[in-house]
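From: lab user (bench 3)
To: helpdesk
Subject: output format question, protein + cytidine-5'-triphosphate

Hello, I'm new to running complex predictions and I'm not sure whether the block I got back is the full result or only part of it. Here's what I submitted:
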Amino acid sequence: VVAAFRPKVLAGRKVVLTAGPTFEAIDPVRGITNSSSGKMGYALARACRQAGAEVVLVSGPVALAAPLGVQRVGVHSALQMRAAVFDALPGADVFIGVAAVADYRPAQAAEHKIKKSGDVLQLSLTPNPDILAEVAALPQAPFCVGFAAESRDLDAYATGKRTAKRLPLLVGNLVQDGLGGDDNEVVLYDDNGRHALGRAAKGELAARIVDHLAALLERRGP
Ligand code: CTP
Ligand code: CA
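Helpdesk reply: Thanks, we reran it on our side. This is the complete output you should expect:
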């Protein structure tokens, strides 16, 4: 169905999403990051908007334009992403964590460019907060959707993450199937089990995820 004619299944809802990688500074010119094109998160933000939602997209550094009608907040680090998410959260009905958030950041970013020497360089890394788990644990938590990109054992890891973070819906994919490309193959996990969505363009998958999420949201009530 042409996007403009899709039913407005998220009319009146506010959706906050994260997308892209985070970038954790080592010094003013270097950092560590994750592989993420942002394409799936941006496609989902667009699909939510086309379904009638008010959409805030908190995005790490990616080479993509904000979808029409979507409020984009640009961030670099996981700590910035977390702060922007909590700023956007009041009034949100749905939170979708699509970002590939760095699990660790350098314990201390050097103020000045680190000069090379012939020696081994040790970096000390400290854990980043888990943004999705924190949002899902809020007393008045919005409907939370997680993503899991795995390189093997998708069903086991995806189900484990959904349970650990107490998420009503988790979208799983194998990195071999989707990373960086324009299409993907995903599986949805919810209280009713496993729903394979098959292989399709990220925009089409996003529309199917939105339909599934809207149906669950409807069942849960306003
Ligand atoms: N996530 C998050 N904040 C983090 C880490 C992950 O919000 N610090 C979110 C991601 O956006 C995704 C989900 O949690 O929706 C799962 O992320 P993933 O990296 O697959 O899982 P982790 O729990 O970090 O476990 P691991 O990396 O060890 O597989
Ligand atoms: Ca992780």
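A quick orientation on your result: The chain has a mean pLDDT of 95. Let us know if anything else is unclear.
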